[in-house]
Design a protein that fits this description.
With about 230 residues, this protein is mainly α. The chain has twelve helices and no strands.
């Protein structure tokens, strides 16, 4: 059976499209797993060189990469790593976030990572500004609100008067979201200097949300999560 010119054309086009999809997918997969696995290994390698974060084109890959960066910068390894390793990771994540923002300036997760990186690079004013932009762009996204709240507490560590203004709004969102509400209880247990602030934030919630918050505080205390 002979194939006509039209059939040959579509067959060739299909092959080209498939090949292009595979070529495009390779850097996307690489971007999603760009830091090479565990946080410990990433920081170990970063002691000698800056991590290379692959270009991520799709929204899925960019989001995964920003989440990975935020996880790294907020991990226990970021606290225990040497200054060179922490700087290398923070600079790599900052550069990647800035590149993403060149094409997607309203991508809130990139502003979040930018804030986290600037915090680790000892640029608190710039970190707070990026945190504010992240909040404005995604005010009601529970998972981002939880990450922003955690970061706000880190930025204001040791100073009870300088919680970024985004914290109040994010605390309200987190309180209403049963998936992330435990974060407020954990902060209440682990940050005794912030308990008055957290109590005030919780008071604005519904009776049900307040009861659930108190239940979580008790559970975490029993489980040994107390300060």
């Amino acid at each position: 059976m002979k194939l006509g010119a039209t059939h040959v054309f579509w067959a060739v086009l299909s092959a080209v499209v498939f090949f292009a999809a595979v070529v495009t997918a390779v850097p996307e997969v690489k971007a999603i797993t760009s830091t090479g696995g565990s946080a410990a290994l990433t920081f170990l390698k970063a002691a000698n060189e800056k991590p290379e974060l692959a270009k991520a084109g799709s929204l899925t890959a960019q989001t995964a990469q920003m989440v990975e960066c935020d996880d790294l910068l907020g991990s226990a390894f970021a606290i225990s790593a040497g200054p060179a390793a922490l700087r290398n990771v923070a600079e790599a994540c900052l550069q990647r976030a800035d590149r993403v923002l060149l094409s997607s300036p309203t991508f809130s997760a990139a502003h979040l990572v930018r804030s986290s990186a600037l915090h680790q690079l000892a640029e608190p004013a710039k970190a707070v500004e990026s945190l504010r932009r992240a909040q404005v762009l995604a005010p009601n996204e529970g998972w981002q609100a939880a990450r922003r709240l955690r970061l706000a507490f880190a930025i204001a560590e040791g100073d009870s008067s300088t919680l970024p203004q985004t914290a109040s709004l994010d605390a309200s969102v987190v309180l209403q979201d049963h998936r992330y509400r435990a974060l407020l209880a954990e902060l209440y247990i682990r940050k005794p200097e912030r308990r008055a602030w957290l109590s005030g934030a919780v008071e604005h919630g519904t009776a049900r949300d307040r009861r659930d918050f108190l239940r979580l505080v008790k559970e975490i205390s029993v489980d040994g999560g107390g300060a």
